[in-house]
Design a protein that fits this description.
Number of helices: 13
Helix content: 40-55%
Strand content: 5-15%
Structural class: alpha+beta
Number of strands: 6
Distance between the termini: 66 Å
Strand order of the largest sheet: 2-1-6-3-5-4
Order of helices and strands: HHHHHHEEHHHHHEEEHEH
Radius of gyration: 22 Å
Length: 347
Amino acid sequence: MKILSYIYKYKISIIGVLLLCLGFFILKYDSLDIYIRPFTQIFLMGSSKGKDVLFFVLMGSMMFLSPLFISDGYIRNKLNYFKDFEDWKGNDFLKRAIILVILAYILGIILEIWLRIYFNVSIFTTFVSLVPNPTSSSILHSHIFKSVLGPFISSVVTVPSGVHVGTSLLNYVPSLGLLIILIFPLVYIIGLFSIGERREYHRVIIIFSISTTLIGLIDGGLLSTPALVGLSGIIGMYSLKMPFSFKNLINPSLVIAFLIIFRVVLGILGSNTDYYEITVIGSSENIDLNDYSIISIERQNGKMIFHISNQYNEMVLLNDLSRYLEGKSDGFFISGNFFSYFSSSDT
């Protein structure tokens, strides 16, 4: 009976250990991918198992540590020695986590815009860094912070070849981007303190939301699926009042709806439907793109600018150019065409 009582008391921590084990198993072996991916794809939208591993490690570790941070937990009681925190409740911490996360998301967008201003290209372009391997980033799906944290992740664990850590972008990130090294663990810790006096299933929701929010920070940015899922969770839990009323969820729902609409509007407004503009930087030789329907070619301040027919699917063209230009240039920018996903499917 004592064992069953212990298991019931620490069931969240036990589940956390199981999730941690699952995360490390997925990192080392591929046999579970076909079973795990259909589930995580819903809220992570990952193209590799990297996001799956990160999700299970983040959520598992937070669940394992959570008993230390609840209202009568060891670490929470230690924090009460500081008078400024003595009266803080879970929502006081959660409010700080939300503010910190939103500021980090905004910083990521600013860094994306700065990069394009520096190279004098449209802010709606996707940048692909090719050294040492292709890594893309854009305002709609940013990998800026991933490139900063990538070296740290690689130094802790051996990253499988199929998992991209985004280090190719690091040379293009201003020193301000290093703030993510401080922000990431701060959100993690503040998120743990925010579980406070909440019911167990509310704690799990917050841990899930913080985990997906952190993933959105480093892989996707503000307008990515993990970010939208995570933000909806933490803003929703912050707005939740007891007794429960759907009115409490109106404002969080409006925020998420606005971000979803904003993403679609940016995709449409940023589309160049006349042609694709390809700006190649750091080319070591004359680039020959004659396999594509070229409209014009221009050299400008060490860059090669190609205008290519709009007959191609944007993603297919981006991937083809990444393979072709790798080893021939440092990287390239490509304009977007939201409508190409509906009108064309091949190159």
